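Below sits our specimen:

——
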Amino acid sequence: MNGPRPPRLICFHHAGAGVSAFARWRSVIGSAAEVVPLLLPGRGQRIREQRITDHDPLIAEVDRLVAELDSLIGPLTDRPFAFYGHSLGGLVAYSYARELQRTGRPQPDLVAVGAVLPPHLRSPVLSAAGLPDTELLHRLVDHGLLPPGAVEEDRQTGLWRRRVLPALRDDLRLGEALCAVGGGPLHGRLLALAGEGDTIAPPAGVAQWSQYAPGGFELRTVPGGHLFFRERAAPALLADVLDGLRAAPRPVSSAA
């Protein structure tokens, strides 16, 4: 007789990224969970689709994000599931978990956010979304998010300016919009991961997610800076946590 299926770990990428951000996680997490990275519009195989940005009115933008996530995540909630969002992805994961809670739909057994400050704080990167290209590139390089060559490349033909910066800037604007909407308490369990050397979302700031988690909060630090998800420590930590979740059929929700 087959045992229960593992829970799903639905992953939300950081600004300017795509599903490849979590390419190595499956081998680390193994049988503890099925890793499901989500691809938002405007990148990878969806490059021709319009990105979700703040070019639209704020409420319309957030509604579009919710509708997009409904279409992607709805079919995945037939067994226990968890969210992990890194940086911008943490704000997306938290915001969508709040929407599921508000509408009475199946909710994640765990919301994990990494390398991100809570909505009432502003990181030095999110607040830079409106800077001119060169200034924004300098800000990203200073925090170790892009290589120094990103600033030095040709203004017209450079890869970073043409291919990376537009999507990254739109994602930062989305993060600003989610912070502007604000937040409230999550009734479920919230796990926050912080990089010991992260200058964008330092552990002391990440710890303030505790204000949003009356249902249970834990802060864990891992080696590395803002992009610590590239190393083994974060997925290994999540594997240990997820190994305790047991898959079970979920009742079909009658909520709209």
In short: The longest strand covers residues 81-86. The two ends are 36 Å apart (CA to CA).
